[in-house]
Amino acid sequence: MQSMLSAGIEELFVVDLDAIFRNKFNFRVYQDISKFFEITVMSLPLRIEDIMDSFVSGASEIVIPGRIDPKLLQDYVRTSDNLVMYYQNPLVAKAFYALGGRSFFTDRELDFSGIKVYSYSKILDKKGYIRLMNFPREELEGILV
What pTM value is reported for the model? Predict the structure, then answer.
């Protein structure tokens, strides 16, 4: 962590594999890291309570699943403006955008205006896109579809 602070890094994209695969959120880790960095947490929560607990634990943004029931999506968006949608289903992504969502996580180019995109693509580099370095693509291969 010291080397990241020395290098001037201010923001981290944290992938919580325990939350994604076992629904066990590492809230304590969020608390510890958020003392030093702004953190975007990819945990793909399925409950509003987990979103709230993540924010209370220090997350600045939370990546939510892109395959989600429209009613639940509305509840998520009412909970916070600081959500990042994993782009999986174009119809759900359009609904998220229509509800005011402006941040996405994907490996492709999106056709929405005024958005921020966390990209795990090795080649996509475009204005508004934040390329994630050292993203654990192999560990998430079953999820990234």
Answer: 0.93
- Condensed to tens digits (0 to 9), the pLDDT of residues 91-143 reads 999 999 999 999 999 999 999 999 999 999 877 778 889 999 889 988 998 88
CB 57 within 8 A of CB 34: yes
**42, amino acid identity:** M
Q: What is the 3-state secondary structure (H, E, C) of the chain?
A: CHHHHHCCCCEEEEECHHHHHHCCCCHHHHHHHHCCCEEEEECCCCCHHHHHHHHHCCEEEEEECCCCCHHHHHHHHHHCCCEEEECCCHHHHHHHHHCCCCEEEECCCCCCCCCEEEECCCCCCCCCEEECCCCCCCCCCCCCC
Taking the C-alpha atoms of residue 131 and residue 145, their distance in angstroms, rounded to an integer, is: 18
- Is the Cβ–Cβ distance between 41 and 62 less than 8 Å? yes
Question: Which residue in this structure is represented by tokens 């409950």?
Answer: 47
What is the C-alpha to C-alpha distance for residues 21 and 15, in angstroms, rounded to an integer? 11
Within 10 Å of residue 33's Cβ, how many Cβ atoms? Answer: 19
